[in-house]
TrEMBL record:
The keyword Phosphoprotein applies. This is histidine kinase. The keyword Transmembrane helix applies. It is an enzyme of class 2 (transferase). The chain crosses the membrane at residues 151-171, 183-201, 213-239, 251-268, 280-297, 304-329. It comes from the Bacteria.
Length: 681
């Protein structure tokens, strides 16, 4: 589960200490006069740490891929990334950390950056670290998929761990109210605070504390201190220290007192001394408790064996963590996992020991107090009920973890929706362009039409006035003169032309709206029989503005049967492929060759075939093999998500069809789609 990809961790860390302005607009490599190997461990320092990382250490980095740089310490207040161009000039910088309002969508406690690779950027990366805790970290670089996988796995591990600790807390708290034994009360609060301490060490309590930097840094020592306060009375009751080490029992309280002193020193600003005392306290803690456990076990205390076994797992976790810190083994970004496993197993075994302690007390009291037999049976019944309750709690937490994983998988669906919105934007632009011309044509003809009609009405009024009297030669001449003045015959002809123009514009508008309806199929959510040629035509209408006068369109439609499909989804397939073909023809023109788009339909072997062909520049084999992969794109940054053809492939696959691509550089590209007539067959 904890296997790491090869060559992910940086080994060389040239560094120097300075202030925030030590890095200017130019990169000075001479300043990095010190070097750390395997990782940085400088303790608590008051100055800012500047570290240089070289991306050329990883020769396998692909310049077309996305990578992430991660720092393995979640408690740094500020981590600033400096990138320089090949001339050594500052290109850009990015700031993250606990004291920085980050725009990163992932709730990853470790600082991380999106690393860009390009010819204009230097492979040298400089980090500035500002911290109130000891400077100790390693740097890793991950491909996009590995980073997401590691983030998801770490989130599952910490969620599963905290779920176990909360379940054990509730379980022992309920046992306390059931049996009224204070050992359960002290133990449940011990495992609660030791679990919270692990969350602080891993950085996840930063989010639980509403991203409050002070509370988070305080919690790293504070939760450990609280756990030590409750573990001492637990050990006293569990191992009966008043019986086995009565002379030294009172000195056990020096351990939580030393933790409190460490906390006070940290608050006063003595960070280095505070963390050194914490490390020393941990060593004294382990030695002292193991000694007490061995003494109690030799004295015949059965619970001491569970205690020693439980603390052995915790000790193993500490040893593995120390081996990692000494760079003898490499756990990568899972350095805290052994300690999490050790504390979880310790908590489980001690819970079993507490349950076993009930059986021991039962056996002892059977010999001394037979009259309490019924009470003991009642305790057994309560334990069984609480075991059922614990199983329900674990099941509930497991379901929550599955829901969390499902939410992570929904991230890809959200990206798909973004691609859909991009297609809708393209649709809207095409519609606006096509409707604009006929509407302007109609509106611009209204004014001359009104003027001409007014002239005609004036003439008609004259005819009416003169008609009341007998027409004389003089009146006839007057009417004739007026007709000649306004060019009555031409006027009637012009009115007819204007009305025809308005009628043509209206018909064009109806045609565009009909094309939109055929493309979107918003009123059709079920599988229906559809004429795919109508879908192709409606798509071409919407993309007409980008092709008119530039690209030659050839349509060879054979008679094909109606196809059962989701019309809107199939139209989305046509839109993505045809728009890609148009972009290929317009963005990469070939001198002396007229851009041409050819669309063929045919029916063969019970399948309806659609062939979309362009005579563009084509694509190499290494690109053709990846075009249906999610997030793969050859477009510039910001012009494509790399999901269009992935969506096309999924839609065709869901319709039980097939899609293939043939391409030759300098000749063109052909997409071949085959769809069955019936979906139920």
């Amino acid at each position: 589960m904890l296997k790491q990809d090869d060559d992910l961790r940086f080994n060389n860390y040239p560094y120097f200490l300075g202030d925030q302005d030590s890095i200017g607009e130019d990169l000075d490599l001479i300043t990095f006069d010190s070097i750390a190997l395997g990782g940085v461990d400088l303790g608590a320092v008051k100055k800012d740490l500047f570290v240089k990382l070289d991306l050329d250490d990883f020769g396998w980095l692909n310049k077309d891929s996305v990578y992430f740089l991660e720092i393995s310490n979640p408690s740094f207040r500020e981590v600033e990334l400096y990138r320089f161009n090949t001339d050594g000039k500052l290109a850009y910088k990015e700031l993250v950390g606990t004291a920085v309002k980050s725009e990163n969508s992932l709730r990853n406690p470790n600082p991380y950056f999106n690393i860009q690779l390009g010819k204009d950027l230097s492979p040298t990366v400089v980090l500035r670290v500002n911290s109130k805790v000891p400077l100790k970290f390693e740097a890793f670089i991950y491909p996009y998929s590995s980073f997401n996988k590691n983030y998801s796995l770490r989130l599952i591990i910490i969620s599963f761990y905290f779920g176990i600790m909360v379940a054990l807390f509730l379980y022992n708290l309920i046992l306390y109210f059931a049996v009224k034994d204070r050992v359960y009360l002290f133990y449940c609060f011990y495992i609660l605070f030791i679990g919270l301490a692990q969350l602080s060490i891993s950085g996840h309590s930063y989010f639980l504390l509403q991203k409050n930097v002070f509370l988070y840094e305080l919690s790293i020592i504070g939760f450990t201190t609280l756990s030590s306060v409750f573990v001492i009375p637990f050990i006293q009751l569990f191992l009966r220290t008043d019986e086995y080490i009565p002379k030294y029992e009172k000195y056990l309280y020096l351990i939580p007192l030393s933790y409190v002193i460490s906390l006070v020193l940290w608050q006063m600003g003595f960070v280095e001394i505070s963390y050194s005392m914490m490390d020393l306290n941990g060593l004294i803690f382990v030695v002292c408790f193991f000694t007490i456990g061995i003494i109690a076990a030799r004295g015949g205390n059965r619970s001491a064996y569970f205690f020693l076994l439980a603390w052995s797992f915790l000790l193993i976790g500490l040893v593995v963590l120390i081996l990692h810190n000494l760079m003898i083994i490499n756990l990568g970004s899972y350095a805290n996992a052994p300690l999490l496993a050790g504390t979880a197993i310790e908590a489980l075994l001690l819970s079993f020991a507490l349950a076993d302690k009930i059986n021991i007390l039962k056996k002892e009291k059977e010999d001394e107090q037979l009259d309490k037999l019924e009470a003991v049976k009642e305790n057994e019944r309560l334990i069984k009920e609480q075991n059922v309750f614990l199983e329900d709690m674990v099941k509930s937490r497991t379901e929550e973890l599955e829901l969390t994983l499902k939410n992570l998988q929904n991230t890809q669906t959200q990206l798909v929706n973004q691609e859909k919105m991009a297609s809708l934007g393209q649709l809207t632009a095409g519609i606006a362009h096509e409707i604009n011309n006929p509407i302007n044509f109609v509106s611009s003809n209204i004014s001359p039409l009104k003027r001409d009609l007014k002239d005609i009405l004036e003439l008609m009024d004259v005819y009416r006035e003169k008609g009341k009297l007998e027409f004389s030669e003089e009146s006839k001449e007057e009417i004739d003169e007026m007709e000649e003045e306004i060019e009555f015959d031409y006027l009637l002809e012009e009115v007819e032309q204007l009305l025809n123009g308005m009628e043509d514009g209206a018909k064009r508008t109806v045609e565009i709206v009909r094309g939109l309806k055929l493309f979107s199929r918003v009123d059709e959510q079920d599988v229906k029989e559809v004429d795919l040629r109508e879908g192709l035509d409606s798509t071409l209408i919407l993309l007409n503005s980008t092709m008119t006068g530039v690209i030659k369109l050839t349509k060879n439609y054979e008679d094909v049967p109606m196809v059962e499909c989701l019309a809107g989804k199939i139209n989305q397939v046509f839109m993505n492929i045809i728009s890609n073909a148009i972009h290929a023809l317009l963005d990469h023109p070939i001198e002396g060759r007229e851009p041409e788009l050819t669309i063929n339909t045919f029916f063969k072997d019970g399948m309806v075939g659609i062939q979309i062909k362009d005579n563009g520049v084509g694509m190499p084999d290494k690109v053709k093999e990846k075009i249906f992969e999610p997030f793969f794109t050859t477009k510039a940054v910001g012009q494509g998500t790399g999901l269009g053809l992935s969506i096309v492939y999924t839609i065709i696959e869901n319709h039980k069809g097939s899609i293939t691509v043939d391409s030759e550089q300098g000749v063109g590209t052909v997409f071949n789609i085959a769809l069955p007539v019936n979906q139920k067959g």
